[in-house]
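Protein Entry — a single chain follows
Next Lines — sequence and tokenised fold
***
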Amino acid sequence: MTRARSVNRVRNPYCLIFLALVAGLMLASVAHGMEASIVDFAPRATETEVFEFSADATPRLEVRLDQGVVRVERGETGRVVVRANAPLGETVLGSTVKIERHGDTLMILPRKRAVGGESGSQAEIDLEVEFPARGELDLRSHLGDFEVYDIDGEIDMRSDRGSLVLEGSSGTLLLQTGSGSIDLIDLGQSVVRATTDSGAVRYRGGSLTDGRYSFTTASGPIEIEHHREAHYTIVGRTLSGDVSNQVDGVISDDSRWGPVKHLHGEYGLDHQAASTVQVISASGDISLALSPQPGDFAVAASDQPSEPE
């Protein structure tokens, strides 16, 4: 027994060395994995181009991209700033996309990547564009998303599978996507046509004033939430979806000849010029409600019983 204990004492240093080597290999493996993750999440390269226009010009921006996110927001009069963001492993302006100028029109077009000696898809790139308050936008993409903020004029946004966001704008507004959603937020006086196949159409915060609005989906829901000062007439229907209505003056009912559910009526006219709203869905739900206002929450809070002292 004494000899066995002495042998164990002799072997202990070798065991410690072996364990140290194993631990070192494990740490090296972890470090290698962490290094690979850092490469995967490498910083993005940024390039910027600035284009000057005369103050009285009506600039037009045309975008044709396969993928990526394009965000357009209000900038300075007479100036368009294009800022491109791409992973450091990718090329950016001039190679991933090209920008052409023809008079007052800027065109952002993709450059295809060569794959096996053949033309492939455009590398992913995100664009941020500062654009004058008024102009024309013609935005098209296959997989990409578009976001436009506070731009007035003629706006045409289309994507096969991407989502579309339009906020704080007015004018002639056309939005169309195959499987993405459409969000319309705080729009001014406009003629709007929003169409999606399987995504949702959401109208939030606007007043539905002095315009024409058409919302259409195949299987996605249509949600309308507007301010109290709105005045409009509405006609809507869904073939197999449900209708939820919380607005006085608008009637929702079922068809006597089948599963079709209707929504029709008028709101807040008071002898003012009324907007027309058309809502059509094949199998999606339709909801109509008033936007909550700060005063609503104040009243709700005052209605709560006070706690006894």
User: Anything to note?
Assistant: The CA atoms of residues 167 and 185 lie 5 Å apart. The chain has a mean pLDDT of 81.
